[in-house]
Request: fold
Amino acid sequence: MNTRRGSRLSGLALAALLCAGATVARAQWESIEVLGETVAPGEKWLLSWVSSETFAGGPVPIPVRVARGVLPGPTLCLTAGIHGDELNGIEVVRRILLEIDPNQLHGMVIGVPIVNLHGFRQASRYLPDRRDLNRHFPGRSNGSAASRIAHSFFQQVIVHCEALVDLHTGSFHRSNVPQVRADLTDSGAFELAKAFGSGVVVHAVGEPGTLRRAAGDVGIPAISYEAGEPMRFQPVEVEEGVRGVRELLARKGMLSSQPRRSQRQEIYYRARWVRVDDGGILLSDVDLGDAVKVGDVLGAVTDPISNERTIVKSPYDGRVLGKAVNQLVIPGFAAFHVGIRGDDFRVLVEEPEEAHAPEPENGSAEPVAEDQLDVDERPE
Ligand SMILES: [Zn+2]
Reply:
């Protein structure tokens, strides 16, 4: 069921075009075909992506919101809920698509709040066949169910994108400090990460099969925003995500009237998980975002029967970017994600009037070569 929501805005769009004066560029900025519908400048639509895979005997339409600006510009895609239990991003996409006025927009925004609607309905990270959709992009038309769904989404939606923000949270009782992850060796992704303006940026190439990596592989600059934990709507993490997308829209020139704020970004080219060596009850001694030094106590694991207690210490100088919530753990469990403040750690400080000319506080603002990097990633 496709619902047209742009009829009233069409008149305003036409007026805006006439008032602004016709230029060649604007004359070429026309309607576009998306998911079988024709979306004109100045219109907002609620469309549906229908995957060929049905699972329950009938097609499941996935809502896709589209806002086409009255003026030319790039197409930004926002995707959330690829893991059906990760809720914060869903609210970010909802708010952004609700507030966007196509009469103030340069370019187009496509928002898919809940890509994995199957998992969302069951509060599950996975698809009904227990596969992780974010390991199957760009997918194959004759592959597994997950691969076919990924292929359909990629071919019907992602091909329209010229930049992508994929929104996630920590997985399985872990929480992340709000952060952007990007392949910082890719200049397009690096620029997107800077434009988003999250206080923490982590270099991560992305595991094969993730939407972010698959998009990057076909030349669509992509970043992921990771904030908070699954199964919850967290106001602070949601607001930080909304602020980041707004900032990105402004810095990409897609919104003309957006105020630009000064910002400070910590860029971690290395981040490592600290694993526990003993099983038991994990209790944490640090908070998300805490700065830590080598030897600082991160937490302790206590055997509930023998009372044996093992202290978990940080092997690194850095910042706690992610951590497991207090829980029962087994040996090898990844408990604390520490961004490492080594020689490659950088801080970028940007003032509003210098929004297009960032100066590094230390080090270089240029992407570094991939072979200089040493990365330990967790699934997105
Ligand atoms: Zn995720």
